[in-house]
Design brief:
By secondary structure, this protein is mainly alpha-helical.
Length: 916
């Protein structure tokens, strides 16, 4: 038992005990808020009185027994040691009095007899009557005790009462006649001070230093209440044996206060044991969710103002409140813990209505509506939708989805409910696309009854298409056409991109498709015939320029980005990904983060940056696992297989191929995966397996009207497979066909085709074609393909005996291979003896025509710019500022008479490499 900052009060009680032997009766009232140690003090004094030979008779009031007549009196007298005859007589007196007066007041004769019992039992010893929780004692017992104290006025007796009054404005009640008497003493207890809390912790066997460090935190949580301090200390030692002086410092290495089960139980016990009005006010405050005025609580609870004010004051005095709010979240939880579901929902519903009438921000009102499980009242739907929009602005889609889900249940209007479901689908897609599946049925139902608007129809179709349900998606779009919805320019662009997506995810011909797939084919054919690729690119730009992720159609945005990628507008695609990624991260929209990472991986792959391609794609599949990718899962998987294969991580690529097969949908994106697998087989020298995959890929592309090298350049890898089988004629035929199909401006496909075709030619023609391939690939920006072309050119130059040129090409190829992460190519060049150290770097003539006008620093900057490096990348590589890079490039453009880096000569690649 710990008594801290109560020694003065204890000494006062001891002195009263000594004085009563000389002066007669003493009455002490120990008052104070709940949990401040009144019971501890009373118990401590009772123990002391027993130790000095006094007769101590104790009792305690209880709220549940407050209406039971003479309950306290029975407790006191039952602790007396009486003979059988005496016990029988005592029971007769109490029973008869309870029966005759119904416990309101004892007769004078009964009081006299009870007084005689006390005198007989004390036998001249000091008598201590200790009554705890006097506020709950029955009035008949209290009246009898006061009457007996009058009769014992000259006897050595001390009556100590412990009482907690909610308000100091209340009178002392039955003890009011004593307060002005010299024998009466009033002891008022308050919470412990910081020093008292420190001392309390020391007595709990915390070290001196640790007690001083933790005391402020303990005081902040408990308000100095000894009861709560004791519970909080137990939480610190939870799961341990009673600490001793050796291991007490190991209880918690960090200086943090842990609020646990002991503290929670103590709070619940206090709130449910104390006055009911405290619990009611605490519950109202907890439901409001923040500090509230007495007026607000009066309106919420329907209580009297005085009652609420007194309860708030009492809760503050007990240490549960500070500045009008709970000191710890455990107190708020404890206040609501005893309510059943219906009562709690009703409380939150009243709270929401109150906050709504007071004009509180929608999110605060919506939180209470969610806790109440919604309300059928019409006003709540608008509040919940406004709160969802606010949550999206704050970057919290999960919270917005929660609000919209409740709004959906509360809405009675079919058209508005359809709008809510559509908005909910868009929000859920930000976090977890697979969760949208549960909304497809209500969206279809809304479509059937005609309550789904045009944008909702497109949302439903795109969601079905995302899951690969192309037939259903096409049927939904047919309904859209029959309704003849009017769309603005952006919505029309979105619709065009959704149709293109439908074409990409439609099941492929020849893959066991049913006749019903014709609807999806029609949608795809319409995309081909009705809109040109330039129209699609224009739509992509329109959608991206007006895109807000919170309200965007994910399929339309992804389709727009892929349109830019397939159209070789890689810079634009990368720029939009970077801009949208910032918004996605602000929204914590994991689905968008994954999608944008996948597109960035595709961009990096087409630029030949294998390291970035692998990094972005792994992030995409980590943030959003394959089962959430729906029909688009082939995109990130194929990119990762392609990158890991080119980087020499063939075991990882093989594992991906084996694990990914069940996930891949049989659509156009699956062909990316089939192409990557064929390339993998080429890399590990399994040409027949590669031919099987690449031929199937080509057949399906041709049948699906998607056969264009900008989409999948499968003929390049097919030609390499034929070369492994020593069939240059078949390889050349595939490449000739690819060059015919490729756009003139598609340098990546043309350069790669020329590089591979060179292997089908004799040495003189091969060297010339490789030179053309290097020039074209340099302009394409694909560093990996350029590195391969340079490596092949180095081999040809070596056969020609042009050793300086061979070493120069090999050196540049090896540098690029290392930068790209192409380990197999790097070690192939290493084995051929390509230069590695700076001293071994081949030198070019300083008087190379056309470049003598450039300084050495300008040549280095120009060479890196010719490689496609950004100004910032150049500054990091050469350890100069971005401003210096810009100045050098300005001089280079002027001296070489070009307007931009795209006009820089291809020879700068080799010249700059030798210098750098």
């Amino acid at each position: 038992m710990i008594l801290v900052e109560r020694h003065a009060e204890l000494q006062n009680l001891k002195r009263m005990l000594d004085e009563c032997k000389l002066t007669g009766r003493k009455v002490a009232l120990i008052a104070g808020p709940g949990g401040v140690g009144k019971t501890t003090l009373l118990t401590g004094f009772s123990g002391y009185a027993k130790s000095v030979g006094a007769l101590v008779l104790s009792a305690s009031g209880a709220r549940s027994e407050q209406t039971h007549g003479l309950g306290v009196l029975r407790q006191i007298f039952r602790s007396l040691e009486l003979s059988a005859e005496g016990k029988e007589r005592l029971e007769f007196i109490l029973a008869s009095q309870e029966l005759e007066s119904r416990g309101s007041r004892l007769s004078a004769c009964a009081v006299d007899e009870l007084t005689d019992f006390l005198l007989e039992a004390s036998d001249g010893r000091p008598l201590v009557l200790a009554l705890d929780d006097m506020q709950y004692a029955d009035s008949a017992s209290l009246q009898a005790l006061l009457l007996m104290l009058r009769r014992l006025a000259s006897r050595p007796v001390i009556a100590a009462f412990a009482e907690w009054r909610i308000s100091n404005s209340k009178r002392l009640g039955i003890l009011s006649e004593c307060i002005k008497q010299p024998y009466f003493h009033y002891l008022n207890l308050g919470p412990l001070s910081l020093g008292g809390v420190t001392n309390f912790l020391r007595q709990q066997r915390f070290s001196e230093a640790r007690a001083e460090r933790l005391a402020p935190s303990f005081l902040a949580v408990t308000g100095g209440s000894p009861l709560l301090l004791q519970a909080l200390c137990q939480d610190q030692f939870a799961g341990r044996a009673e600490p001793d002086s050796e291991d007490v410092e190991l209880v918690r290495a960090e200086d943090e206060v842990s609020v646990g089960a002991h503290f929670q139980v103590a709070i619940e016990a206090c709130l449910h044991r104390w006055d009911p009005q405290l619990l009611e006010v605490a519950r109202g405050l907890a439901a409001l969710g923040g500090p509230a005025s007495a007026a607000e609580l009066v309106r919420l609870l329907g209580s009297e103002r005085r009652t609420v004010v007194e309860a708030l004051s009492a809760l503050t005095d007990t240490g549960l409140l500070r500045s009008g709010w709970f000191r710890d979240s455990a107190v708020q939880a404890a206040a609501l813990s005893g309510l059943d579901g219906d009562a709690l929902a009703a409380l939150y519903e009243r709270t929401a209505l109150l906050l709504h009438h007071d004009g509180v921000v929608p999110s605060k009102v919506a939180e209470r509506l969610v806790a109440a499980g919604g309300t059928p009242q019409k006003w709540s739907v608008g509040v919940l939708r406004d709160a969802a929009r606010q949550a999206m602005r704050e970057g919290d889609p999960s919270r917005a989805a929660e609000f919209l889900e409740v709004a959906r249940g509360a809405c009675g209007d079919a058209h508005e409910r359809a709008e809510i479901v559509g908005a909910l689908a868009r929000v859920l897609w930000l976090v977890k696309p697979s969760a949208v599946t549960s909304l497809l049925v209500p969206l279809r139902s809304a479509l059937e009854v005609g309550s789904l608007d045009g944008r909702g129809i497109v949302m439903l179709s795109s969601s079905l298409a995302w899951q690969g349900r192309a037939v259903e998606a096409a049927m939904v779009l047919e309904r859209f056409d029959t309704q003849q919805c009017e769309f603005d320019l952006i919505a029309t662009a979105e619709l065009m991109l959704v149709r293109q997506w439908l074409r990409w995810v439609s099941p492929l011909k020849g893959k066991g498709r049913a006749d019903g797939i014709a609807r999806a084919d029609c949608a795809g054919e319409e995309a081909v015939e009705g809109e040109s690729w330039s129209d699609l690119v224009m739509s992509a730009e329109q959608v991206l320029e007006s895109c807000r992720l919170a309200d965007a159609l994910p399929v339309a945005v992804l389709s727009a980005l892929l349109t830019l990628v397939y159209g070789n507008r890689l810079d634009d695609a990368q720029r939009w990904c970077a801009m949208l990624r910032t918004e996605a991260e602000a929204y914590r929209a994991v689905a968008w983060v994954a999608l944008l990472a996948a597109v960035e991986g595709m961009v990096a792959l087409r630029r030949g940056d294998l390291v970035d391609a692998e990094r972005h794609t792994r992030r995409a599949l980590t943030v959003m696992p394959p089962h959430n990718w729906g029909a688009a899962v082939g995109l990130p998987l194929s990119c990762l297989v392609y990158a890991t294969t080119a980087m020499g991580k063939t075991s990882e690529a093989e594992a991906l191929i084996k694990e990914a097969l069940p996930e891949v949908h049989q659509n156009a994106f699956w062909l990316h995966f089939l192409h990557a697998r064929g390339r993998f087989y080429v890399a590990i020298n399994r040409p027949y397996a590669a031919l099987a995959d690449l031929r199937e890929c080509g057949t399906l592309l041709v049948n699906s009207h998607l056969d264009h090298p900008a989409f999948i350049p499968w003929r390049s890898d097919l030609a390499e497979a034929w070369l492994l089988l020593r069939d240059p004629l078949s390889a050349r035929a595939a490449l000739d066909e690819q060059l015919i199909l490729a756009n003139v401006e598609d340098e990546r496909v043309r350069g790669c085709s020329l590089r591979i075709m060179a292997a089908t030619l004799d040495i003189p023609a091969r060297a010339s074609m490789l030179s053309d391939a290097v020039t074209v690939l340099f302009k394409s920006g694909d560093q990996f393909e350029l590195a391969i072309a340079l490596a092949d050119a180095s081999d040809v130059e070596l056969e020609y005996g042009r050793f300086v040129e061979s070493r120069l090409s090999a050196h540049q190829a090896k540098r690029m291979a290392k930068f790209c992460g192409a380990e197999p190519l790097y070690w192939r060049l290493q084995k051929t003896g390509g230069a590695e150290k700076q001293d071994d770097t081949p030198k070019t003539q300083e008087n190379t025509p056309g470049f003598t006008v450039l300084s050495q620093s300008e040549r280095k900057v120009a060479a890196l710019a010719a490689q496609g490096r950004s100004n910032r990348e150049i500054s990091r590589t050469l350890f100069i500022t971005v401003s210096t890079v810009e100045q050098h490039l300005t001089k280079v453009y002027r001296k070489l008479r070009v307007s931009s880096r795209s006009g820089l000569p291809a020879e700068l690649y080799l010249m700059g490499s030798a210098d750098h």
